[in-house]
TrEMBL record:
It comes from the Eukaryota. The lineage of its organism: Eukaryota, Fungi, Dikarya, Basidiomycota, Agaricomycotina. This is F-box domain-containing protein.
Length: 537
């Protein structure tokens, strides 16, 4: 300490040290380094002790969990109950939304394989529960072909055996451009011979539309008579780029599907190439004509009329590809359908002029064209009137749509419970349509879910920074009246509805001053900012 005092005056100055002061400084530095090293050694011991204590704690915690598991009620459940619980652990396979799956094979991190890794008893129960093994996934690809087939040769036969005699759901995924010889692989022939009589659903996910025509249809035709239990079949293409640019040549022979006595649901992505007379339309309850809305592949309005006429039992009809224009003729008869409950289709006024769907409940309309297509709305209004109040869920979406072109038609949807609208602008005049007052409002007394997308403001305000670029209001647990957006005291009304069970959330990119004052975040309404890239549906 005495040595340090001898050089203290140098620390607060810029004076040069003397020879003696230099020696003193070196001695002090050595002493401080020694102390610092001793602290480092002590810290290393403490860190080592801390890590060792943490490891010991983790071991005790794991041991505690294992002992707590001894008393867990799940141990008392009989195998029959566990088996039913396991069935609810299976992942959902939504074949209406075809998503590229690479690879298309079971994963150890999901049921049912995950259930076989918990313990010996669970493995025994899982392997003995046939319903866990009724989804069969087959992967066909150009790269790594030998390894893929070797892996599938190991698990596919045992997978089929575990399913017992239950119906099977089979998906065949084609990745990349392949040759037809891959469909003639010995393993695939063995699987067909072993289980095709139990296939209840068959889903082909192809790389391109050309594979549907050149590979899938000929393959199915070559195995005619092997699928007596098939109820659902879909043949789609997962490559959007190839969808748009790859044209089809000729029309494939679709008569194979007429030989399926139980076929009820059918989806195809090559609408422009189908002979609808080849399909068992009189037996179908669901038909989805897929494709890209920007693709040159499309169907004609007359074909839509033909399908609805030849499908008396159809309950769901969806068209996601384009529809060719149609010139209406005077005296065209009205097409009445008494079973159709779900309709997803592009908006074409002359299409609706000839349709009378008495029991329609779900209506999903989309449009890529400017609003002038919606301008002649007489046919759509008549179409809605023909539903006789049966509509419960309505979705209207598209580019450049102006609400004034279709909102008057919604006056006839008094029983709608869910309304999803994507429009160009959300201005006061539009929002005021939902006011529960006499006049120009929409009489939607049963509305419980309202979702709006658009620019909040008028056309002259869209370039202002304070404009709300995205607006979505989700309402659940509403009273019998629709939410009054503009009634003079909107905040009080929102608080009132919240006390009565309303869950209200507004998602916005930018909340302008006028909008903020309209829906002030005072605890009754939550505002969630969203990134621009995440906007949309």
């Amino acid at each position: 300490m005495g040595l340090e005092l001898a050089i203290t005056h140098l620390i607060s100055s810029n004076l040069p040290p003397s020879i003696f002061e230099k020696q003193v400084t070196r001695t002090v530095i050595e002493n401080l380094n020694s102390k610092l090293h001793s602290f480092d050694v002590e810290l290393a011991k403490l860190v080592s002790l801390l890590e060792e204590t943490r490891r010991a704690r983790a071991e005790v915690h794991d041991t505690l969990r294992m002992h707590q598991a001894i008393l867990h009620p799940v141990r008392t459940l009989p195998p029959e109950i566990l088996s039913k619980i396991f069935i609810h652990c299976l992942p959902d396979n939504n074949w209406n939304e075809v998503v590229e799956q690479t690879p298309n094979r079971p994963t150890p991190s999901e049921a049912p394989l995950l259930l076989t890794q918990i313990c010996r008893s669970w493995r025994t129960i899982a392997l003995g529960t046939s319903r866990l093994w009724t989804t069969l996934k087959i992967d066909i690809r150009t790269q790594g072909t030998a390894a893929v087939w070797h892996r599938q040769r190991i698990f596919l036969p045992s997978w089929i055996t575990r399913s017992g005699r239950l119906p099977l759901v089979v998906s065949i995924f084609i990745l990349g451009e392949i040759s037809y010889s891959l469909l003639e692989h010995r393993l695939l022939r063995e699987i067909l011979a072993q289980s095709s009589h139990r296939w209840k659903e068959l889903h082909w996910i192809c790389y391109s539309p050309r594979q549907i025509q050149n590979f899938v249809i000929p393959f199915l035709a070559a195995h005619m008579g092997l699928f007596p239990a098939l109820e659902t079949c879909s043949i789609v293409s997962h490559n959007a780029a190839v969808k748009i640019h790859q044209a089809m040549i000729g029309r494939p022979d679709m008569r194979f599907f007429a030989t399926l006595p139980k076929l009820r649901k059918f989806r195809v992505d090559v609408a422009a190439t189908c002979r609808w007379s080849d399909l068992p339309l009189h037996r179908l309850t669901s038909l989805c004509i897929g494709g890209d809305s920007k693709s040159p592949l499309c169907i004609k309005v007359t074909e839509c009329f033909q399908i609805l006429t030849l499908c008396p039992h159809l309950e769901a009809f969806s068209v996601s590809c384009g529809i060719a224009d149609y010139v209406a003729q005077d005296g065209d008869p009205l097409i009445e359908h008494l079973c159709l409950k779900v309709l997803r289709i592009v908006f074409l006024d002359f299409l609706f002029k000839r349709l009378a769907l008495r029991v329609l409940q779900f209506l999903d309309l989309w449009s890529l064209c400017p609003t002038n297509r919606w301008g002649c709305r007489g046919g759509f209004t008549e179409f809605v009137e023909h539903t006789n109040g049966s509509l419960r869920h309505v979705t209207i979406r598209g580019a450049e749509i102006d609400y004034v072109d279709f909102m008057p038609s919604l006056r006839h949807c008094q029983n709608v419970r869910s309304l999803v609208i994507s429009v160009k602008y959300l201005d006061d005049a539009f929002l005021s349509l939902f006011k529960p007052q006499q006049g120009a409002q929409l009489p939607l007394e049963h509305l419980t879910r309202l979702q709006l997308t658009g620019v909040l403001g008028t056309p002259g305000e869209v370039n202002k920074p304070s404009t709300l670029n995205y607006f979505r209001l989700r309402c659940r647990g509403l009273l019998s009246r629709a939410l009054p957006f503009l009634n003079g005291e909107p905040i009080k009304q929102l608080m009132f509805y919240r006390r009565n069970g309303l869950d209200c959330q507004v998602d916005a990119e930018v909340i302008g001053t006028s909008t903020w004052s309209l829906f002030a975040p005072n605890g009754s309404v939550s505002f969630v900012p969203v990134m621009k890239s995440a906007v949309g549906f």
